[in-house]
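# nightly structure sweep
# worker-07 picked up a monomer target from the shared queue
# config: single-sequence mode, recycle default, output format = structure tokens
# input follows
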Amino acid sequence: MGKITDTVKHLILINVVFWIGALTIQEGRMFNDLFNYHFPLNSMFRPWQIVTHMFMHANYVPTPQGGTTIYFQHILFNMFGLYMFGTPVEEFLGKKKFIFFYFSAGLGGLLIHGGWDYIQFSSILNEVVNIGGLGKQEVLNILDTGNYDKLPDGVFTQKKWDVFSQSYYGTLAGASGALMGVLAGFAMAFPDHKLMMIFFPVPIKAKYFIPGIIALDLFSAITGISIFSPSNTAFLAHVGGALIGFILMWYWKKNSFNKNRWDQ
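# output follows
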């Protein structure tokens, strides 16, 4: 493992500061409420969450006894991946281009994940409005207050309600979309570099290994079946981040970006 690059180091530090903040400022879940991404029609949404959610991670998980325990794995694996793959990608691209690349991938993940949520929610919302004779804002007010008995009958199956409520109340946290963009960029910049998983110690070239990980995320996004990640993982954010990372690196390599390299 080589020396960590400046941008990667600062990104890791920012992530750690946010993680500690979320652990120590728990009154009313204020920190998470402010900085996790919320559905844009939800009253909890704030514009800065479009960026700040990239530095948020899951902090607690429930225990069988009904309590909670600190959850290290999310930030640990993300930051280790950012160090391992972000450092060579930053060296390959240069500092300014890497910053643009990283945040573009994170925004791409949000766009795909949030866009799909918005499409599903809007479709069901229109059904509620048409059947129940309610205005859209009335329905949103019902969701904010929890007065679900005011919603019209005959609209929701259990599956439809799950999609509707999870879209509205769900939040997005983590640098995973941006990290998947970095992985895609690594595979294109260093396609023949060999990688291994701890539980599958067979060297595989990056150009096969990383697309395989992305394919698993796409499979999970389509089927709802989680392979290696927790079931509440935002798989579409992973796919969206990887897609943007691929497009940017493909474009820059095709157009010989080193001839027009942004200064570092």
